[in-house]
Amino acid sequence: MHLDRLWTRREVEARIAAGDTLVIANNYVLRLNAWQELHPGGRLVIQHMVGRDATDEITISHSPDDLQSIKRFRIGRIEGQWDNFIPPIQGGIFRKHESQQNEEEEASASTTNETCLSVDSEGPVERNVSKKSGLQPSGRSSCVDNPKGSSQAMRGWKLEVTPESYTAFAIKEALDADIAKYPSLDTATQREITLKFRALHQRVHDGGYYDCPYHEYAKEMIRYSVLFAAFILTLKLGWYITSAVFLGVFWQQIMFTAHDAGHRGITHNYTLDTLIGIFIGNFCCGLSIGWWKSSHNVHHFVTNDPVHDPDTQNIPLFTISPAFFSSLRSSYYNGFQFVWDSVASVMVKYQKWMYYPVMAVARYNLYYLSWAHLMSHRAVRRGAAAWVWYAEVASSLFYIWLAYLVLSQMPTFRDGFFFVFVSHLATVPLQIQITLSHWGTSTSDLGPTEAFAQRQLRTTMDIACPEWLDFIHGGLQFQTVHHLFPRVPRHNLRRLQSLVKQFCAETGIEYQSYGFVDGNHHILGKLQQITDQARILAACQAHMAATGDMGMH
């Protein structure tokens, strides 16, 4: 197809309805049908960009060389500003060509108007709320009169006595709070935010923020070597618990560099950074860098979305959004349904108290997720990146060297057990750091008009700390800056923070930042808030069971 061909919005919609994977970038239409299966970052990342202007997402995630390579997928261009569709994976509905649509209507009299409607500007959550909320002005709740833990917003509404209507109410309450707090979602306002963000990105590029400070990695290597040497020395001396602590801290520290490599923030070369990531992640730590990329890249583009972001999907252990009350299906886990059942109803009562104990053993689950990924169809085994899967499997000698160097040195099984437990316990700060910057922020979907930059700032927060403590947090305390510019080396994030704060001041978007202690209070408060909402839900269900009131008012 000729690159000068001008595509209309209607034509793009029809091609997507016919099964094409079309993405808009820099006013060009990209056709990524075959490439999505070979994409090193996973196909789901591309699926979430279908029908959208993904200029910002593509630009911040790829090097200049990659951006040149992407041009080969261009099949034409668009004119003017693009109004985003909701991607099919997110529930968007697309019309086919009128000729195809007419043929289908003639062949099936049962075809409904709903199946051929184009998507509108509202997000799926907001549409569902408007249809299902069942909210009417009143002075009380029909399922429970001001139950313990109910929010101020509950007052003044009559809530139909169904779990669905309460879930819709809770979602809408959070949605309305975000709409009131952040800049308007109208096209002009969000377009201005987008243009200012692109100007900011140009400053980041021109200012050399993408240049890797290799001398900082020299310091990192010294620290890693000292920790590993201390682990070996104390192990030989028979100081097993001390040795376990050194090994755990080594794992915690070195994974920061694996994170950089996963984002291609060290050499900016796919092959070299992937090899670094495999050596650290798979060989040194037993964690698949391929799994991490598959999960983490999706997390970056649909941050905190309960349906799509795997980092939010942890029930029955943790529930961070009332959306889970409706037993949603995960797009990441192939439609797996996270059921809100009696187990989840019980566990949510204690989630604030379970947070730290679960984080203490969370690393074991990462081993499972790593191997589940490597054995699944999601792992890329074709194309130019096929070698990565074989390299990952071959490098998973972590379990062998750990068993040989460590467990073979233990005089008793009890010593070996406590060594493994303590070494994994020492990585807890990393598990907390990962969740701290997101679980306490918004999980609402404000729809396809919201600018990329606003979405990232709304769903991410920083952890403030003095510069001398940066090595403990490993750059992950600057999650807000990192989510806007994931390829920027973490040693440059503190310097870049001032530019991001200036951008927030100019656009009116809140820059969320808390100290480590306050951040912990914030996330525990969020977990308690969901617990309180679940208590109201349980009260509604109890009312239904006791009165037989099915909410048919």
From TrEMBL:
<feature type="region of interest" description="Disordered">
    <location>
        <begin position="97"/>
        <end position="151"/>
    </location>
</feature>
<keyword id="KW-0443">Lipid metabolism</keyword>
<keyword id="KW-0472">Membrane</keyword>
<dbReference type="GO" id="GO:0006665">
    <property type="term" value="P:sphingolipid metabolic process"/>
</dbReference>
<dbReference type="GO" id="GO:0016020">
    <property type="term" value="C:membrane"/>
</dbReference>
<dbReference type="InterPro" id="IPR001199">
    <property type="entry name" value="Cyt_B5-like_heme/steroid-bd"/>
</dbReference>
<dbReference type="Pfam" id="PF00173">
    <property type="entry name" value="Cyt-b5"/>
</dbReference>
<keyword id="KW-1133">Transmembrane helix</keyword>
<keyword id="KW-0479">Metal-binding</keyword>
<dbReference type="InterPro" id="IPR005804">
    <property type="entry name" value="FA_desaturase_dom"/>
</dbReference>
<keyword id="KW-0746">Sphingolipid metabolism</keyword>
<protein>
    <recommendedName>
        <fullName>Delta 8-(E)-sphingolipid desaturase</fullName>
        <ecNumber>1.14.19.18</ecNumber>
    </recommendedName>
</protein>
<dbReference type="InterPro" id="IPR012171">
    <property type="entry name" value="Fatty_acid_desaturase"/>
</dbReference>
<keyword id="KW-0560">Oxidoreductase</keyword>
<feature type="transmembrane region" description="Helical">
    <location>
        <begin position="270"/>
        <end position="292"/>
    </location>
</feature>
<feature type="transmembrane region" description="Helical">
    <location>
        <begin position="386"/>
        <end position="407"/>
    </location>
</feature>
<keyword id="KW-0812">Transmembrane</keyword>
<keyword id="KW-0349">Heme</keyword>
<feature type="transmembrane region" description="Helical">
    <location>
        <begin position="226"/>
        <end position="250"/>
    </location>
</feature>
<comment type="similarity">
    <text>Belongs to the fatty acid desaturase type 1 family.</text>
</comment>
<dbReference type="InterPro" id="IPR036400">
    <property type="entry name" value="Cyt_B5-like_heme/steroid_sf"/>
</dbReference>
<dbReference type="Pfam" id="PF00487">
    <property type="entry name" value="FA_desaturase"/>
</dbReference>
<feature type="compositionally biased region" description="Polar residues">
    <location>
        <begin position="131"/>
        <end position="151"/>
    </location>
</feature>
<dbReference type="GO" id="GO:0046872">
    <property type="term" value="F:metal ion binding"/>
</dbReference>
<dbReference type="GO" id="GO:0016717">
    <property type="term" value="F:oxidoreductase activity, acting on paired donors, with oxidation of a pair of donors resulting in the reduction of molecular oxygen to two molecules of water"/>
</dbReference>
<comment type="pathway">
    <text>Sphingolipid metabolism.</text>
</comment>
<keyword id="KW-0408">Iron</keyword>
<comment type="pathway">
    <text>Lipid metabolism; sphingolipid metabolism.</text>
</comment>
<feature type="transmembrane region" description="Helical">
    <location>
        <begin position="353"/>
        <end position="374"/>
    </location>
</feature>
<feature type="domain" description="Cytochrome b5 heme-binding">
    <location>
        <begin position="4"/>
        <end position="79"/>
    </location>
</feature>
